[in-house]
Amino acid sequence: MIKQYFRQAWQLIKQHKLFSAIYIAGTALGISMVMVMAILNYVKTSDISPEINRSRMMYMKSLTMIPADTVRFYNSSYGLSYKAVRLLCLPLKTPEAISVTTTSHGFASLPSDDNLINARSRYVDTGYWKMFNFSFLAGKPFSDAEFASGLFVVVISESVAKQLFGSPDAAVGQNIEYGFKPFRITGVVKDVSYVLSDTYSQLWMPYTCLADYDKDWNDRGGMLGSYNVYLLARSSKDFDAIREEINENVRQYNAQVTDWKANLLGQPDVRNVAINRFAYNIEPNMKRICIQNILIVFLILLVPAINLSGMNSTRMERRLGEMGVRKAFGASRSKLINQVLTENLLLTGLGGLAGLLLSYLIIFFTKNWVLDLGTSFGTVLPEGTSIDFSRTMLFNLKIFVIVLLACLAMNILSALVPVYRSLRKNITDSLYIKYN
Prior knowledge:
Layout: H1 2-15, H2 17-45, E1 57-60, E2 63-67, E3 76-80, H3 82-89, E4 97-109, E5 117-124, H4 126-131, E6 136-139, H5 144-149, E7 153-157, H6 158-165, H7 168-171, E8 175-178, E9 181-189, E10 203-206, E11 224-225, E12 228-232, H8 239-256, E13 260-263, H9 271-274, H10 286-318, H11 320-328, H12 333-366, H13 391-394, H14 397-423, H15 427-435
Helix pairs in contact: 1-12, 2-10, 2-12, 2-14, 10-14, 11-15, 12-14
């Protein structure tokens, strides 16, 4: 029976080409917008190599210092200093791993060579390599001993290795200059896409090679700096325990100071909260953000569904005679509804497929700014940086399920009401329309 319904639907599509084209285009536009949102959310929140542990990770990227007295009415917010990391984060026992990082930017080159490469660098510790799954093409990450000694060693990306040495294998053991200092290359990793904000870089060095890595730079108790902290839980069930442990460290710190007190504003964050924390001094309202996203998706589907519903109503008026004849020969209302819904599902499915392809085109042509959708401000790309979405970011089961659900929602919203209204009419009225 279902096969027959689809066969009839295909015949109707060929008979009414203009209607079908408009219906498919309207569906495609609505679903493509939903798909762009779904793909961006998947890229930002799911476990994608090398950030394969996002579902078990917590993030600390800022700290707010509040004056203890009532004379000063201003707060100060920024990243964490090494002192803050040492007092609040490194003593934690619950996480499986802890990583401390900070980023920089400069020029890399071969020794005594004027050919400079504009590079993004990231200063990390050895826990960073255990937390993220980088694909090493040659060599290995720097060791615990090299990190503890503050040696000038570096892991470089594949593209930098090819620019400077021709191949990854030829780069290991060689020296490059960065910030007018020589660094020995210990390993080469596969390039990381810019969309993976916690691992993207061209150079990775131990932060202990910075002469002032543990220096206090401010007068807010020396707690503000430029470090980010990643906490890897053994299980997502440990999130509350980690948050309670770090809050206890904050309470102990605040109990000892009389000038500036620390406030984490709800941190450490799980992944979906971390990507919505756009300001250092404002805690994201996740309930409001969730409601906003649901309303946006609903409106994106509802607007074309209303237009398509009007088209369906017009088409059903033309088919009243056909429905009347079928009811006269014993067809039940449920069978007629199933037939019309199946016909619309075919149209919606074709529109969904077109919308999926359209969403990929939208992302391809807008990839340099599309990641800023929903953020408070845009991000300026580093010079020479291109954004690439890998195949696994675009083609996956989760995206397919979202397409399917969006198609079903569009089908029900646009077809059910006009079909139900049309089939409520008496057989005689339908037959009268058929023969008059």
